[in-house]
Automatic annotation (TrEMBL):
The keyword Ion transport does not apply. It is found in: Membrane. It comes from Corchorus olitorius. InterPro entries: NDR1-like. The chain crosses the membrane at residues 16-45. GO terms for biological process: defense response to other organism. This is Late embryogenesis abundant protein, LEA-14. The keyword Membrane applies. Keywords: Membrane, Transmembrane, Transmembrane helix.
Amino acid sequence: MPSKFSSGPEKRTSPLVWFAAIICTILTLAVIIAGIVTFIGYLVIHPRVPFVSVVGASLDRLLIDYAGILEIQVTVVIRAHNGNENAHASFSESSYFLSLDGKNLAQLVAGPFEVSKNNSVDFNYVAVSKPIPLDPEEAEDVDLSIKNDRITFDLKGGTKARWRVGPLGSVRFSCNLNCQLHFHALNGTYIPSRCTSKAK
Ligand SMILES: *[C@@H]1O[C@H](CO)[C@@H](O)[C@H](O)[C@H]1NC(C)=O
Ligand SMILES: *[C@@H]1O[C@H](CO)[C@@H](O)[C@H](O)[C@H]1NC(C)=O
């Protein structure tokens, strides 16, 4: 005796197909809702993510002798921002390299520190170079910078920031700087320019 299904009218949709269609609809809705929630979360959180920026600097010492030995001391003030109104931010592994024409001069490091809710902390990094022997061409470049009263260093590096979320979880961010610091070579005054890890 033929079964009810195989002999029934072609048009009847099997309950299994209905079931699959409903599941698919629910899944699709779930994906759309998750997308919207993520997008809103991004809009809410994005302007508040921790970032670092250079807010000041000074060239405290710039010496080059006749043998082409260079010595510098630079102070860089890096501000760590935490725009989150509900969580402290912990910053760690802060490390930046100061270089001149691709030659590393000094490393700026800081131990771990905390930035309270909706706050910022300024850190003075003092970079003192060891005496650095320059080849004649590099020494000439530095002399030229001094004559032109303008010297440019590269600052590269970053720090890791973390928000503690609840007792166990945390959200991590990495903040990277890659910019140029310009100074008047003669009096060591910093010429401000944009230097921040914040995405536009
Ligand atoms: C966070 O800081 C900004 C500016 O520093 C201030 O205008 C704002 O009211 C602060 N928000 C809270 C919740 O403290
Ligand atoms: C340093 O020198 C520059 C250019 O000569 C000048 O504009 C600037 O005001 C000077 N800064 C100080 C603190 O004297």
